[in-house]
Amino acid sequence: AQIAYTGRNYLVQWYPPSKPYLAQACQYLQCQIKLPAQIDYVNIDSHELQAQIPEKNIYSLNLQIQNQSPFAQAWPFVELILHDKREKPVLRKVFAPADYLSPQELERATVTGLAAKGDYPIKLYFEQANTKASGYHVSVFYP
To answer: Structure pTM?
Structure first.
């Protein structure tokens, strides 16, 4: 019982017919069944930062996220760090899945997540006021 409780998220991924039973148990135990969040399987294949409207400091960040695991995973958070020419960070922005998924995708995301062995394009828009940056670093993580 303890193994099923602590490993419920993975058990549902590896043996989907267990989900209704575990969901019923979670109602009683006040727990949730969530998608796995193993960052070692999620990476960024490509990324590009562009000025969309330079006079208004509007930028876009395009990236391609890959889930290399054999099972679906939760959508990760995206971290963007702008740095100066000395590689010193001047700004850090964190984008939650709600920032880059549409409301319909977000609703499905809690159930379906990043499909196994899938590639996903993401486009983020943001305003960046008066920060002089010469480079950037982008990564994904789970809080």
So the answer is: 0.82
